[in-house]
Amino acid sequence: MANRIKVAVIVAGGSGTRMGSATPKQFMEIGGKPMLYHTVSAFLQAYNDMHIVLVVPEAHQAYIATLLTAFDHPPSVTIVPGGETRFHSVKNGLNTIRQPAVVFVHDGVRPLLSPSLIRRCYEGALAKGNAIPAVEMKDSLREVDDEGNMAADRSRFRIIQTPQTFLSEILLPAFDQPYDPLFTDEASVAERAGEEIHLVEGEEQNIKITRPVDIAVANAFLSGHGL
Ligand SMILES: Nc1ccn([C@@H]2O[C@H](COP(=O)(O)OP(=O)(O)OP(=O)(O)O)[C@@H](O)[C@H]2O)c(=O)n1
Ligand SMILES: C[C@](O)(CO)[C@H](O)COP(=O)(O)O
After folding, report:
1. Could you say which residues are annotated as the site Transition state stabilizer (predicted)?
2. Chain centre to alpha carbon of residue 216
3. pLDDT of residue 156
């Protein structure tokens, strides 16, 4: 496994409709810094030889110059236009990879991940080909159908996070499949291509900023008040 580069494909090409803000949520600030500053920083702290690929909407490419001013030492980043869906944005990012790599695909709007989670995913992917962070469910779960609803055994389910981490020779060919709306993440794409998926322990704080309340939660976390 020598000579493998590390590439973080950070997808920030969405429109953030559930946030209901004029500016797409990935360009908002938390803890007094741009959200993507926190996301990119975690990857640079995890490994100092990390390559960053940032996927952003075509209309917001100029924002990256502003983002980079938040860093004391602005990192080198490859900027790629977003696609119609998350799948297409990830594919645009993967198209930049030209040599054997460990590839981390991460939601730009999960800014609270720790460098140790990134390192756990790296080690897991090197050992088993992929590493997908997951956490247990805290809430009760019911299955709903046309006839009603019934209790489900929550111990049989996990909540899936990013960074979803793969050896490039597994992930890149998997993304040659035609798009299917059931592809909500990289694990679902790789599984359809025949890969066995390996879970690693995720992090409670690694929330996906989706609605306004998540901004308040992230600010509380960054100000040291925890979650
Ligand atoms: N075409 C898309 C859609 C989503 N994403 C990214 O994928 C991550 C997870 O998506 P989600 O939170 O669902 O983002 P949005 O699609 O922006 O939000 P919404 O569903 O509320 O519109 C985000 O970092 C988002 O920017 C992307 O790069 N390209
Ligand atoms: C990739 C993901 O964050 C894993 O939980 C999630 O599947 C993204 O889903 P969304 O519908 O794009 O928010």
Report:
1. 18, 25
2. 20
3. 97
Kindly state the tokens that stand for 68: 């980079």
Q: Show the domains of the chain with their CATH numbers.
A: 5-143+150-222 (3.90.550.10)
Say if residue 161 is exposed, middle or buried (CB neighbours under 10 Å; 0-12, 13-18, 19+): buried
Q: Quick one: pLDDT at residue 5?
A: 96
Q: According to the model, what pLDDT value does residue 226 have?
A: 67
Task: Give SS3 for 199.
Answer: strand
Do the Cβ atoms of 154 and 141 come closer than 8 Å?
yes
Atom of ligand 1 nearest to the CA of 11: 28
Q: Which of 9, 11, 206 to mutate to test the pocket of ligand 1 (most atoms within 8 A of CB)?
A: 11
Nearest 5°: the CA angle 90, 62, 118 is 40
Give alpha helix (H) positions in the chain. 35-46, 63-68, 86-94, 115-128, 168-174, 186-192, 212-222
Residue 61 to residues 37, 86, 199: CA-CA distances in angstroms?
Answer: 15, 17, 34
The residue contributing the CA closest to ligand 2 atom 3 is 161
| Ligand 2 touching residue 185 (CB < 6 A) | yes
Predicted confidence (pLDDT) at residue 223 exceeds the cutoff of 80: yes
Ligand nearest 105 Cα, by number?
2
pLDDT digits (tens, 9 = 90+) for 48-76: 999 999 999 999 988 999 999 999 999 99
